[in-house]
Each structure stands twice: as C-alpha cells, then as structure tokens.
Design goal:
About 45% of the residues lie in helices and about 10% in strands. With about 90 residues, it is mainly alpha-helical.
Length: about 90
Amino acid sequence: MVFRRPIADPDEMLAREKLDGCIAVVPPERISELGIKLLRIGIPLRSGKNLFGASLDEVRALRDAATATRVLNMVSVNRRFMPFLNRAIE
C-alpha cells in the first residue's frame, strides 16, 4: 500500500488514480455518496465513523449499492463518534 499524497476531491482522485481499495475518511454526510460511487466502479470500500451515512435513507442507499454490486465492503465503528447513538442518549 502506497500513500503518495492527500487528495481533497474524491472525483479528482478517481480520475487520476487507479485504486485497488479505498479507506474513505469523509464527513458523515458524504459517506453514502462516496461509498456508492466507489462500489459502482468496483472499488472495495472500508468506511469509518458511523454506520454508513448520516440518515436512514443514506444507509439504505449504500446497503442497496453494496448488494447490487457485490463489491467487498466493510465498516469500522468508532464508538466515540456515533451521531445516532449520541442523539438517542440526548
């Protein structure tokens, strides 16, 4: 695995680089959008922060893309950053 440089724009990254996989480090409101884009072009995805999106609709959209594409993907849960759980506790 080689990290050459950070790229702030995912579309620029996808246009310039040939990726074998992706660790997506984006704000919760961008997880689903970027995840779906990566899955649709066949790039395995490892997503962090919260459970795949900022809303239930986003979670469902990413789930459906994963099911449709059958591309490997996983989520890593950071228990300190779980907006849904924090909102429920409040």
